[in-house]
Amino acid sequence: MKYKRLLLKLSGEILAGEKGFGIDPATINKLVAEIKSVYVKGVQLGIVIGGGNIFRGVQLGAEGMDRASADYVGMLATAMNALALQDCMEKAGIDTRVMSGIEMRQISEPYVRRRATRHLEKNRVVIFAAGTGNPYFTTDTAASLRAMEIGAEAVLKGTKVDGVYDKDPKKFPDAKRYTSLSFMDVLKDELKVMDAAAISVCMDNKLPIIVFDIGTHGNLEKIVMGESIGTIVT
Question: Are 164 and 193 in contact (CB under 8 A)?
Fold first, then answer.
């Protein structure tokens, strides 16, 4: 295996499947099967999940709601997704813990870096809910921050597309997919990999980001085994 410890970033929209809203059971089961394929190999996996399938704080903030309040509601949406994912993973035989940036003792553990690392060492998947626990920071930023804290070797961003393109491949048939990019290219060309704060954290700490299609069977396992899948940002 090329990687032993990874941080997987998932958008909330992925859980909605074709429905576009909420959680689609067939989609989440398919996702869990992909995660289990690397879990059984002994890969230590942290997961940061968004909440866009339930509530988008940035969008509501732009429409007049207090931005901090909107972001807190968004964090609660990520906690809902984390609990749904945990339930599905444990039914599949994957030992899982949810750790939250906002204290919710009845449903999750508070985030403590040393405890998270210990869970990973015991081959438990750790789902990090509620982002960083602070408004104005996205789950992308939370992913890069948690990746550094747990000593992950890379951030894997699981999306619905097979990498990073120079323009929207759904609108432009001639869109070109990059196999590799530098952090400066991403910032300079404003490519929608992750937000600028998340890119900066990864760039400062030389932490690679791999953007790939999580919906294609076997992609996650191929990355773990060292195959070139999607787009790598270094």
Answer: yes
Q: By three-state DSSP, how is residue 21 classified? A: coil
So what's the pLDDT on residue 85? Answer: 98
Phi first, then psi, for residue 15 (nearest 5°) are -70, -20
Which class for 159: exposed (0-12), middle (13-18), buried (19 or more C-beta within 10 A)?
buried
CATH number corresponding to 1-160? 3.40.1160.10
Q: Is the dihedral of CA 216, 179, 151, 73 positive or negative?
A: negative
Global confidence as pTM: 0.95
* Mean pLDDT of the region 50-64: 80
53 and 15 Cβ atoms separated by less than 8 Å: yes
Backbone torsions φ then ψ of 214, nearest 5 degrees: -70, -20
C-alpha span between 166 and 215 (Å, rounded): 21
At residue 213, the 3 state secondary structure works out as strand
